[in-house]
Amino acid sequence: MFRYALQRLLSLGLSLLAASAAIFAVVEVIPGDPAAYMLGMNASADTLAAVRAELGLDQPLVLRYLGWLGGMATGDFGISYTYRTPVSELVAERVWVSLPLTIYALALSTLIAIPAGLLAAARRGRATDWGVMGVTQLGVAVPNFWFAILLVIVFAINLRWVSAGGFPGWEGGVFPALKALTLPAIALALPQASILARVMRSALLDTLDEDFVRTARAKGLSRRQALWSHAFRNALIPVLTIIGLQFSFLIAGAIIIENVFFLPGLGRLIFQGITQRDLIVVESVVMILVFAVILVTFLVDLAYAWVDPRLRRR
C-alpha cells in the first residue's frame, strides 16, 4: 500500500508541474497589457514602463514563470494587479464560500444518486427503474445555469423562501450561510447526481451478473441480500471514479453558478480577474483549483486500493 501511495504521489507532483506550465502559457498569451488596462488609454509610455517594472511584467517569461512557481511553493502567490493585495489573502477570503459550496453540492449529489441508483438496479425493468432513469436523463440534459435561474424564479421570486443571491458570511451564523448556499448547491448537484445515479445502476447490474453473485444466490441469498452484501462494494470503483471527477466539474460549474447567485467565491474571483486582466490572480487561483482536483484524484486512487486490494500489487 505504501509503494502504491508513493507512486501516485509522484504522479501527482508531475501532474502539478505540467499543469503549472500549461496554465502560465495559456494565460500569458491572452492579448492585452495589464498595465495599460490599469492606467487607461491615455497613459504615457514612461508611466506604463514604470508600472510594468513594478509588476514584474518587463521580465522574460521564463523568469516570471520560475518566480511564480517558487512563490507558490512557499505560499506566496504574488500581488493582485487590481486589488493591490496579496492573492493569498483574496483566496483565503473567497475559499470559505467556494469550498463549502462544492462540498455541499457533492454531498447532495452523492446522497441523491446512490439511493436512486440502488433503487433503479433493484427494480430493473419495472416502472420505478424507468421513472428514475427518465428523471436522470432530464437532469443530464438541463444545463446547471438554466436550472439555477429556474430555482431563483420559483423559490426566491415567487415563493420568497430564500434570497435571490448574495452571501451573509459565516460570522452571521451557520444556518443563514447554508441557506444562502442551498439553491446554488442544488443547481450544481442535480446534473451530477443524474450522472452518478446512472453509473451506480449500471455498475450494480454488471456486478449482479458476475459469477460470485450467482454463487451467493445459489447458496440461498435473496437478490436484495446479494446486492447489499456482495454487489454494492464491488460496484463502488466506477462510482468513486465519477465522484472524483465530479469534484472538478463542480469547481468548473461554480464559476458560472457563483455569478448567477452573486456569491463572492473563487469562481467569481476568476471571472473578475479575467475581465480585469489580473493575470496573477487568474494564474494562481486556477492553479489552486487544479491542485485541489489532482489531490482529490489522488485520494480517489487510494480509495480504489482500499476497496480493491488487487490494485495495491500493481
UniProtKB/TrEMBL annotation:
Domain ABC transmembrane type-1 spans what residues?
95-300
Annotated compartments: Cell membrane
Q: How does it sit in the membrane?
A: Multi-pass membrane protein
Q: What is its main location?
A: membrane
Q: Which Pfam families match?
A: BPD_transp_1, BPD_transp_1_N
| Membrane-spanning residues | 103-122, 134-157, 177-197, 235-257, 285-307
GO MF terms held by the record: dipeptide transmembrane transporter activity
The record, for InterPro entries, names:
BPD_transp_1_N (IPR045621), MetI-like (IPR000515), MetI-like_sf (IPR035906)
Annotated keywords = Cell membrane, Membrane, Transmembrane, Transmembrane helix, Transport
Any GO CC annotation of this UniProt entry: plasma membrane
Top-rank taxon of the source lineage equals: Bacteria
Question: Per the similarity annotation, which family is this?
Answer: Belongs to the binding-protein-dependent transport system permease family.
Q: What is this protein called?
A: ABC transporter permease
